[in-house]
Design goal:
This protein is of the alpha/beta class and 358 residues long. The chain is built from twelve helices and 16 strands. The chain has two domains: 78 residues, no CATH class; 255 residues, Vaccinia Virus protein VP39 (Rossmann fold). Bound molecules: S-adenosyl-L-homocysteine.
Amino acid sequence: MSALKDSLRELIALEGPVTVERYMGLCLRHYYATRDPLGLAGDFTTAPEISQMFGELIGLWLLEVWNGMGRPSDCRLVELGPGRGTLMADLLRTTRLLPDFKAAATVHLVETSRSLRPKQQAALASSDFSLHWHDRIEDVPPGPTLLVANEFFDALPVRQFVGTERGWCERLVGLEGERLIFGLRPEPEPALGTPLRLGDILEWPAASIDVISELARRLAVDMGAALILDYGYRGPAFGDTLQALKAHKPVDPLEEPGEADLTTHVDFHRLAQAAAAQGARAHGIATQGDFLLALGLEARASALKARATPAQAADIDRALARLTERGPTGMGDLFKVLAVTHEAIAAVPGLPALSLSP
Ligand code: SAH
């Protein structure tokens, strides 16, 4: 039994049920602090771990946007939640194409996990960029910024509310004997601003809204752009998207607190709205498949295959399919892409302009 499960039981016995948001926050902190969750031996696999092409195309995207910004000579290249550092290593390789960028950029990795930081350090050791680690985006020094976040926002805790006769009531995690169970706060939440829908679940990504608001405020003031990729949907939508993954299989989110990955699907429309509220411009929202194909994924795959063995070429084809295929087994349309920029950046590669309905 996990140490976290014991301390959660104690906490709930002492203070009463906790919100789903607090439960997620405690589980995720423990989870990321105590392991490398990525890859075949871990719990889940991400696009940069599937193929170097993912990071390379994002590198080209960043270079083009940096060009469009007038090549600022003092630019922060920021990644939120860099995992094993693979995406940053792949995109930095691409930026060699523009030596001026290398001279201009300092790399900032926003990572809370002390067990993943050394992996990032190892992955980036040969990159020859100046590297800085931070716990929070607030700690990254101000100035022109290019930022990327892949599968970061799905790993932040959300509040959940259930539509009842009394109103939207917050979903809680409590105890029944020794077992963790879901429950509801009896009093409804007064000011959610969403019309009541009986029996539905409403997810409120307070932590994500905080991060995107800080990010957008910086970009709107300091100049820059952020590229956000994750699984999710164009909201508004209702439903429980909380899921736990262990060894690549879904498990009960209350069964092994802190030992399984806990995530929710990202509401991209809500993120875009929060960014716009800070005076930033939003672009997208595209599917990952359309975005990568627009950036030239097929041409990159062909170039790599021209120098590959037959087995490597088959790997490249499999990766291309996995990154772009629609439907439940592919990442092509489940994953979405949103960019947030300074208002002066009217267009970015691979993404349509976004008009936000309220
Ligand atoms: N972007 C990587 C890893 C995704 S996993 C990839 O695509 O492979 C999520 C990452 O976010 C991990 O590096 C995790 O440690 C980090 N993380 C999770 N919550 C965080 C938080 N609140 N602040 C900063 N980093 C966080």
